[in-house]
Amino acid sequence: MSTIVVFNDTQVATIEDLNRIGQYQRRVNDNISRDVVGASHQYSGFVVTQTNQQTVAVEPGRYHTLDAVYESTSAQQVQLGSYLPLQGNLFRWVALILRGQDADVNEMRQVETEADSGELMSQVLTVGKTRVASVVILSGTDAPSPLKPGIDSSSACIAFIKLGSTGIIEIERAEGWRLKPLVELEGRVAAGERLDETQGTRIASLESDLANVARSVRAAPRPEAWRQLRNDVARLVRLSGFPDTARAEFWDHGLVKDKWDLVHPNANFRVREGLRFPSANEREAPMVLQDPTDPKIRVTEGFLLPAWTEKARINIDGNDGEISVSSVTHTVTTAIRREISRSSVSYGPVFHVCENRAEWAALADRRPGETFANGGETFNVVGLTDHVNNSDPDLSQDHKEYAVRQVTYDSWTEVYWDYVTTTEGLSGSIFGQTFLNAQPGWLTSIDVKLTRVGAGADLKVLLVETGMSGTPDLRRVIASTTIPAANLVVGWNKAAFVPSFLELGKLYAWVVVTTGNHWLATVTGNKFAQGSRFHSTDGFWFQGSVTEDFAFRANYASHTVTRVEVPWEPLTLENGMTSFRLNYPGWVPAGTRLQWEFKPSGSDTWYPVSNYANNPLGGLPALCQLRAVFIGTTDLMPGIMITKARSTTVRSGPNMIAMSNAWNFGVTSTEVIVEATLDTFDATRHTFAPRLRLPNNTVELPDVVTTEIDPLKPDRRTVRAVFNFTPGVSSARLQLEGTTNTVAQPYFIQDVFAYVN
Fold first, then answer.
1. Which of 149, 356, 566, 647 has its CA 20 to 30 A from that of 45?
2. Among 747, 365, 408, 412, which Cα is nearest to 582's?
3. Are 102 and 185 in contact (CB under 8 A)?
4. pLDDT, tens digit, for every residue of 423-439?
């Protein structure tokens, strides 16, 4: 004790003098605790025992901080009933932590009220100061595999308690904060000294052995590099389409369903450019115009364009000569009519953009069926054609996509595709005329000029693309129509088509097929230098005179306005939607725009399909009004085939279990490592629990789980789980579980990599 209290014989002692006796002693005790014990937020005592399903008892103990020691002198009862999870499949960890505070010791004492008479009375006085340690509860969150709450550096935890819906499941003493007494430390030191005496020589001899091992290890690949190599090999095997045989690596990008078992009794998920939460409710329905007779639009055989009138862009007129269609041998052949390609617009968190979309390049023949199919449609892959795009590497990427956080626009860069076709037999004499399309636009009709009309035979007219040799290609028909024999006249005859988009700078052709003795007017003197006339015999095309062409007019749509709002019947879903998808055949030419807008029920605002910090569908509206805004020029506007346009409204579910097919390792192993990339993940809203289902149907929990957050995209993370088990197995299923506390903001699994050691 560095300071003591001294009294003199004649001194009148004051209250301050007497209080210093205790103050000096407390200072000594604090200095000993600080200098000798050196504990910062540790405890001794405080043994926790369970008294019933909802209550624990905490025995007396001391709470040591760097500056003071707080004490609990009596047992404390802690009630946990209000912290029990409500659902039977959820659990929660709570922590019992210590708090220290100063308190007064108050007791009854006799005090003198009259100095002269010495009269006394009883009064409660503060007779001491004490430091009290109390127990408080720090709660974690409910989850199937809950995490323990974090303890900050200014607290000491005495126990973690795991709770279920029925009560206390487990009590785990928090050894990391327990103050070790000197006798325990002395035992540890003695054990170390004995080890040094008995094993010191052997340890010294191991140093040289370890040095040799270290040199060998430095020559081997690092574990991280080895794991990256196995990841790359598994990815290459998947993308290269190698035969699906037993392998020690598994990798999948979640684009197609080949690796996943959607019919497993425990499965509850979707595969759509990633593994996603299932739909709690989903509705697919035709997209229907509110008013097909609206004068601002024009619908031709189901094809919608803003209102238009015809305007001839190519007019080759004259009567320099004539050719009898029946002058060439009749041909029997087959024409293949192509359909205008599809577009898809998706809005909502269910359709968050997945970066593995780039992997579609290795699955080109699967993309249309996965992305653009409606209902029960099946798309047939007919193989590559002789289109110039397939021979030019710079033009071979025939798909484009624009994506932001909550919106996905998909479209095929070719106007017409071979995934949906119609086959048609042709019989008769066949003539054709090519023409260069110098300006993009919607061709609505071809006028052909007849000088003589035969009896009783229709005239079939086709609009086709041309092959690489510049001849009409009957395998790539864009549109076709038939002019009945009764309607044929000498002079101009109109072959009206469904409006068909023709691209800038491409060579097209119109073809006539008939069994009648009709005569086509021709012009000479190279009046039309941007095309050639042809006739076909036995499937081969032959060019006529290089200076002679057929007389014809090519008519295109000329629009009256450059911006049109088109209302559609509302999107609906019972109990509300969180996202929707629009899928329709159509085309948005360069320089034009088709903007979809929606208005949730109860809102006065029209929202363009775009990215929003707060999802306008977050309130789960059961109905959304829908409209399309067509923007373009008088010569060019977007168009939609409404007969095949469909909408899908979706409300996501709160739970996901993604189940893989049985994965055959090819070896027997006792360790499996699974790595999953999660996107749009919010730890405050979402949980993710990787599992492994063994061949005996046992669900194995991971022994170690680590998380690596993407520094460039904080809402993306890679979760790595290590599974160890005995005995070893040669196959297993991946079982990836997840939850979200709001269906308006789910996350998705971007890709999965797994391997065995």
1. 149
2. 408
3. no
4. 777 778 899 999 999 99
